[in-house]
Design brief:
By secondary structure, the chain is an alpha/beta fold. The chain is 38% helix and 13% strand. Strands 1, 2, 3, 8 and 9 form a five-stranded parallel β-sheet that branches. The protein has a four-stranded mixed β-sheet with strand order 4-5-7-6, with helices on both faces. The two termini are 38 Å apart.
Length: 315
């Protein structure tokens, strides 16, 4: 096919292209009317991306240093101790500040847990299990799945499940990896023990899809109210901007022009929002949202199960 032929196409080349087919229509104008815990209209889902200690480092033999660092500096050919220490802040101090915020507000959260990160700090696994938080799979290590072969990815999912079950006492039933591959969803369904995956950003509601003839639930995630934007370009310049974005999101979802109940995802990283000023913005938003009777804080698995009860999977 020539360059001009590709330019003038109006549809995807679906046949022979690996990965799921795109769906640009979704629910359309009339999504299903869902109510959450305590008949709430909006379900807020806080995700803790727990990755510290599993990221790419020279110390782990990767020959590269990971990104998402507070400053735009990089060491290319040796250990970057500055980057490593930022990640250490998340597991040493930041996660415990966030736990204090959640304990004080009495809100449950879901961990997108990289298995090796929990192995290296078992007290975090113990704490989240004791709180009743959910540990969803976030990879064996915090690695890009699109860089793996299909067999490598299958093995990484298997190892992650075994490890998280060992450290937390419960196998993960949700999955969200770092940069999914075209094989990820197939392999999650093939594994057989997952209730949902979150490897998409395309909805404000869960939805059912078909994978090799089997119904599979997707609970979308979001990178909008997400603290990665503190350290990524065009992001938050201050904790106040995070708070205002979160506040505007919940205000609109509560009064979105129809009676449809929706979900709101908040993405947090201990090395980022575990810092005092950013943790304060998160705590202030939680307090703001808790004043409303039509808002509920829920784990991702509870959102998935509540949705499935009200919108059963298609046969």
């Amino acid at each position: 096919m020539s360059m001009n032929d590709q330019f003038f196409r109006r549809t995807d080349l679906e046949e022979g292209v690996p990965g799921p087919r795109r769906d640009l229509v979704g629910y359309g104008e009339h999504p299903p009317v869902v109510r959450w815990a305590n008949e709430a209209k909006v379900a807020i889902q806080i995700v803790i991306n727990y990755e510290e200690g599993s990221e790419k480092t020279f110390a782990m033999g990767d020959g590269v240093n990971d990104g998402l660092y507070e400053l735009p500096f990089a060491v290319d050919d040796q250990r970057d101790l500055a980057v490593e220490s930022m990640y250490e802040y998340g597991s040493r101090a930041g996660i415990w500040r966030l736990f204090r915020v959640f304990d004080a507000a009495e809100v449950p959260v879901t961990f997108f847990a990289a298995a090796v990160a929990l192995e290296r700090n078992p007290e975090v696994a113990k704490k989240l299990a004791g709180r009743g938080d959910e540990a969803a799979g976030h990879g064996f290590r915090w690695s890009n799945h699109y860089e793996m072969t299909r067999d490598e990815e299958r093995e990484a999912i298997k190892l992650a499940v075994e490890s998280i079950e060992k450290t937390t006492g419960t196998r993960p039933v949700g999955w969200y990896c770092r940069e999914m591959s075209v094989n990820t969803r197939d392999l999650v369904v093939e594994e057989g023990g997952f209730f949902y995956d979150s490897d998409t950003y395309n909805e404000d509601l869960p939805y059912w899809t078909k994978v090799n003839g089997r119904s599979h639930l997707v609970v979308p995630y979001s990178l909008v109210v997400n603290d990665a934007r503190y350290i990524v370009g065009t992001g938050y310049g201050s904790p106040e901007q995070f708070f205002e974005t979160a506040k505007a999101s919940i205000d609109r979802l509560r009064n979105d022009g129809d009676d449809v109940g929706r979900m709101m995802s908040i993405g947090i990283h201990p090395r980022v929002s575990g810092n005092p000023a950013r943790a304060d913005a998160l705590a202030r938003f939680i307090a703001y949202a808790q004043q409303f009777d039509d808002v509920a804080f829920m784990r991702r698995i509870d959102i998935a199960q509540t949705f499935a009860q009200q919108v059963p999977k298609p046969e």
